[in-house]
Every structure is written in structure tokens, then in C-alpha cells.
Specification:
about 160 residues, alpha/beta, Rossmann fold, two-stranded antiparallel ribbon, 4 helices, about 25% helix
Length: about 160
């Protein structure tokens, strides 16, 4: 099974700039995390955009949709910011015959206490077991994309 990974930025790829006291989107972390986790399989990582998900617009979602729809591979993993992950997932709902899994992180992947590595592993597992459709792998669970919401207060994704 070949996995095409598309990255869009979000907290997953954020870097804390101490001198600036803010976060900026850095290079995609998915490939490095998969190497650290010793994931055995073929994959490719392609950065589509480097934005906080609150900054994604319709043009960005069209770009993501086109990349996924035109991808010759059946298994697609998208790292995405958590704030609008469900919006992008909904924009991909019309793509048939592919297993599309979106995942992200509440803390940057470069942080020791990040959930990025766990969520990425969960997403890989979902790609191996879920039927075609759009899925969100967060908070230790795999959700149908149209049946999940982010609970901002608790900092988790929950079924709705």
C-alpha cells in the first residue's frame, strides 16, 4: 500500500520562534515522524500549503481537493490544522474510491508533549483499515468526517 501524504501546515508543522514569541509554519514533519516511528511502507510527502487552518480559504481547499482527486494513489493522508479540519474534510466528501484520512495536532510535532506522532500513527492505522471515504483520526479515535467536532475547551475531537 502506497500512502500519499499531503501537508497543509497547521499546528502539526508549527515552530516556536523564541525571539519573536510566536509560532510560524515550518517544514512538514510527517516524513521525519514516520522515520522515527520506523513505519515500514512506501509513502511520499508533498506540501500543498503552509498555513494555520484558520487562514485556509476556498482557493486553498480547491487546491487540496484537486491534489487528492488527481492523485493516482488510493490512500491519502492529510496533515491539517485542527480548527477547520472538518471544513476541509467536508470539501473532500465527493471524492470516491479513496481512503482519505485527515489528522493534526494540538501541540506542534517538535514539542515533546505533542500528540502529533500518536495521531499520525493512528491515521496510518486508519488508512489500513477504513473503507473508502473521508475520515478524521484524532484524540485516539477514528471518526467519519461528517460525524465529528472539535471540543475547543477540552482540546479533543468528539463524535457529534
Amino acid at each position: 500500500m502506497f500512502i500519499q501524504i499531503f501537508t497543509t501546515g497547521g499546528t502539526f508543522d508549527k515552530i516556536y520562534f523564541d525571539a519573536l514569541s510566536d509560532y510560524q509554519i515550518g517544514d512538514p514533519q510527517a516524513g521525519e515522524l514516520l522515520q522515527q516511528a520506523r513505519i515500514n511502507g512506501d509513502y511520499a510527502v508533498q506540501s500543498l500549503v503552509k498555513k494555520d487552518s484558520l487562514e485556509l480559504n476556498e482557493r486553498d481547499r480547491d487546491l487540496i481537493h484537486t491534489a487528492v482527486a488527481d492523485c493516482p494513489h488510493r490512500h491519502i493522508l492529510i496533515t491539517h490544522g485542527t480548527d477547520t479540519m472538518t471544513v476541509t474534510a467536508a470539501a473532500l466528501a465527493d471524492i470516491e474510491d479513496k481512503v482519505i484520512v485527515l489528522t493534526g495536532a494540538m501541540q506542534p510535532a517538535r514539542f515533546r508533549d505533542s500528540d502529533a506522532l500518536f495521531n499520525l500513527g493512528l491515521a496510518i492505522g486508519a488508512l489500513n483499515t477504513c473503507p473508502p471515504g473521508v475520515w478524521i483520526a484524532m484524540s485516539g479515535r477514528v471518526f467519519a468526517a461528517d460525524g465529528v467536532a472539535k471540543n475547543r475547551i477540552a482540546g479533543v475531537f468528539e463524535a457529534r
